[in-house]
Design brief:
358 residues, alpha/beta, Elongation Factor Tu (Ef-tu), domain 3, Rossmann fold, 3 domains, six-stranded antiparallel beta sheet, 18 strands, globular, binds flavin-adenine dinucleotide, binds FE2/S2 (inorganic) cluster
């Protein structure tokens, strides 16, 4: 589960001037490991210079497509995305971790639901997978997508979305919002903000006619749209969000105010791939993940910023304090799941289990 597998790149296609779609060949022996759900992401790993670099990329293909594909948009000054856009070619091999993430809802062919999605820029990748999969799996459900971009030339998956719309005219509506290209209807000019989402909900879609909303993009857009949906009456449990890490500043851990005790130690046991390993760490000094890696354990991670959920595990004994969390939902926290990259032990013994992470 936590292992990277070398996958051969079957195809690299330029989606826009600064985005490539990369399709992996999955050998029969790894088919089960790489079976995915719509909206999940892969952790890719490469040695760039001397650095071991890991980044998450959402799967953009539909579950029914039989293809494992991600889209990588070049982030200006970004290490992995620039390297990938400049160097990846068909036939090369990349280290890939099996799919993870919970940015989806269960599907049922009997459903007659209306789904709403807000995507900005590369945030379309998991949304495309969700829309395609859902339209194929639920023949009576509908989708409305608001998709923000600078201009038509930067729209990722323009053709695929257009084909999808043509073949599902009654069930898929797409509204493009452009920040640097004038459109006829004033409401569709600019960026997707809280105010704009509130106006869409007044004039284009009724919140009480929506069963589930998906939002993917930068943090300010995600929070703004979420608030607009809540204010329009949608329950938090019906709003699914996925944040792309590039915009999130790394957070420095604030030690808890010393409770009158000098540094305390914790004995940590990590259950992973059916094995248990233990180490001792100082509380408040480093995260469970950093301490585990330093102790030589091959614990899985990607962003180390509380965003991607690759390091998700379950606390089955003891207590931890979690710093930032952009990835776990309330119900997961209630069940004891934490992000090990953001977790600091507060009891003398802590046991965490990565095998219960799914
Ligand atoms: C769950 C998830 C799914 C994702 N899915 C996708 C996807 O489908 N497609 C996609 O394109 N992306 C996706 N991302 C984002 C992706 O993981 C990367 O964050 C993104 O590609 C940028 O990585 P990078 O290595 O190119 O940039 P980084 O090198 O990590 O840099 C990120 C930003 O920080 C700036 N920066 C870097 N170093 C410094 C510094 N020292 N000082 C100041 N600024 C600095 C860079 O200029 C850049 O703007 C996803 C993220 C998550 C968490
Ligand atoms: S490694 Fe990304 S949330 Fe912990």
């Amino acid at each position: 589960m936590s292992k990277f597998h070398p996958l051969t790149i079957a195809d690299v296609r330029n989606e826009t001037r600064d985005t490539i779609a990369v399709t992996f060949a999955v050998p029969p022996a790894l088919r089960d490991s790489f079976r995915f759900q719509q909206g999940q992401h892969l952790t890719l790993r490469a040695k760039i210079g001397d650095e071991d670099v890991r980044r998450s990329y959402s799967i953009c293909s539909a579950v029914q497509d039989g293809a494992l594909r991600v889209a990588i948009k070049r982030t200006p000054g970004g290490l992995f995305s620039s390297w990938a856009n400049d160097t990846l070619r068909a036939g090369q091999t990349l280290e890939v971790m099996p799919p993870m993430g919970h940015f989806n809802v269960p599907l049922d062919a009997a459903n007659r639901k209306h789904y709403l999605a807000f995507a900005a820029g590369s945030g379309i990748t998991p949304i495309l997978s969700i829309i395609k999969t859902t339209l194929a799996a639920e023949p009576h459900s509908r989708f409305t997508l608001f998709y923000g971009n600078r201009a038509s030339s930067s729209v990722i998956f323009k053709e695929e979305l257009s084909d999808l719309k043509d073949s599902h005219l009654e069930r898929l509506k797409i509204a493009y919002v452009m920040s640097r290209e004038q459109q006829d209807i004033e409401l569709f000019n600019g960026r997707i903000t809280k105010d704009k989402a509130a106006r869409f909900l007044r004039h284009w879609v009724r919140a009480d006619d929506v069963d589930v909303a998906f939002i993917c993009g930068p943090e300010d857009m995600m929070l703004g749209v979420s608030e607009a949906l809540r204010e329009a009456g949608m329950p938090k449990s019906a709003i699914k969000t996925e944040l792309f890490a590039a915009s999130v500043p790394k957070h420095a851990h604030q030690p808890r105010p010393a409770a009158g005790v000098a540094h305390q130690h914790t004995e940590v046991t990590v259950i992973m791939d059916g094995n248990a390993a233990s180490f001792t760490m100082e509380q408040d000094k480093e995260s469970l993940l950093d301490a585990g890696l330093r102790a030589g354990l091959d614990m899985r991670y990607s962003c180390k910023g509380g965003v991607c959920s690759t390091c998700r595990c379950k606390v089955i004994e003891g207590k931890v304090d979690m710093d930032v969390n952009y990835a776990l939902e309330d119900y997961e926290i209630a069940r004891g799941y934490v992000l090990s990259c953001q977790s600091f032990p507060t009891t003398a013994k802590v046991v965490i289990d990565f095998d219960q992470a799914e």
